[in-house]
Amino acid sequence: MIKRENQMIIKKRINEYLPIAFIGFIPIGVLGLIFSTTVYFFLKKVFKKKKFVYRAWFFIGLLTFILSSPIYLEWLGRPNPSAQASAIKNQMVNGVKECIIRANEGKTTNFLDSSSFRQKPIYKWYSFKAINSSSCYSVYSYPSKFFDWYLLRVEKPAFYFTWFRLDMDPITGEVTKTCGDSTKVGCREGNTW
Could you give the CA distance from residue 37 to residue 18 in angstroms, rounded to a whole number? Predict the structure, then answer.
């Protein structure tokens, strides 16, 4: 008889917490799954009336949803791969342009002197690397891992990304744009862009 009562209690708890967990998972992912059920559990301990529990749980959930919006909007609003590759290449070109302007103004032209290279790449799927730390005329951008806060895991770069390299000879002005794999987004035949 006791075993049957325990099974009924477990079934009741599952039926009670499963929708709560699911509702928490939808907007925020794994964090929402854990946070939603934990908040609901504590609210049940504090409030005796279910009406107050659900209202407080909804209010806290709504507040969490609003505060975490940058995380899930970023995850949902990923631009297409072609736009990502173009943006990274544009940031590289802008960095070299800044370098040219700095040289014309008589300022130093170290890699990190260019604000485009000091800041993180526009998209977290890429990282910048100096080819020569004492020159901002050359930059290498490669796909890199990043931590996805929505899914709570480290994401590998997508298979359709490749590396890009931009070199400029400051004396002749000759520019060389190379990339890793011509079958990938943003890289043309002959491994140029």
Answer: 9
Between CA 31 and CA 39, with CA 37 as vertex, the angle to 5 degrees is 95
Q: For residues 167 and 138, is the Cβ–Cβ distance under 8 A?
A: yes
Q: What is the pLDDT of residues 97-156, one digit of tens each?
A: 999 999 999 999 999 999 999 888 777 778 999 999 899 999 999 998 888 776 677 888
Looking at the chain, how many residues does it have?
193
Q: What single letter denotes the amino acid at residue 142?
A: Y
d(CA 6, CA 160): 52
In order of 56, 105, 143, 191, the CA distances from 43 in angstroms are 7, 63, 44, 59
Distance, CA of 144 to CA of 124 (rounded, Å): 8
Which pTM value belongs to this model?
0.65
